[in-house]
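Hi everyone,

Forwarding the result from last night's run.
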Amino acid sequence: MNSTFRKSLILVLGLTALSGCNEQATGEAVVRTEIGGSETGSGSEQGNVASEQRAAVETPCRPVIFENEPFIHCVAVPARHHISTALQSSDGTPYRGLAQYAASRSSDAPPVAFAVNGGMYDDAGDPIGYYVENSERLKELNRNAGEGNFHMLPNGVFYGSDGKWEIRTSDDFFSSVSDRPEFGTQSGPMLVINGKLHPDIATDGTSKAIRNAVGIDTRGRAHFVISNRAVSFGKMARLYRDELDVPNALYLDGNVSALWNPAADRLDTGAAIGPIIVVEKR
């Protein structure tokens, strides 16, 4: 973490997560849940799961402020964490939420450091782009033109195997990656591409939402960020370029963005989601 980052990202203790946003997605708004506190909404079963996970894991997530907006910044380190994707249970039932996924984990599974929604999806919750889980490709790379954030080209793929995690534009992934990774998820748009902001992202556009994204730094660490208030693409992209200093960052989603941080008793619920990115402690 460089000195500029330490000066600019001020740790905020006791930060209250907010759920309002200016643009609404279909379904319920995401609820920032504190298990065992005055605002739960996820049921005792999920609360018990989160409490057990908290006892086993030291949180890698910290509240930060960037350009006067509150974010949560979670870091996955290859030597300490394992990343995977999750979409549905063994019987084929889609999770569609972090609470459902949390409740499904067995007691002997590795402790979860944190988990987030991990890419865009259709009405049934199926990925609309490249998706790999446990080295099995469930959806091919989507290089089609279209509308919406996913098709704000270039979009990209977050993927990895054996503790080596990468983000590439979809075209770069198509031309450069031949071996199937252990996990992979396609989303869009790219926020930062080889150290530069996406050319079509405005400085601070009128579209604002609760957003989340992932970026990989030069040391191979994965930086996950979720906003606690509605923010623009430009602000989140600058956070990655100017403060986290990552060469490539990928937008994951907005409005439905959610975080499970067991050590902090945070388990967001609300609008149905699709793919989930899970970071476990090794």
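Residues 1-29, 33-45 have pLDDT under 50 and may be disordered.

Cheers,
N.
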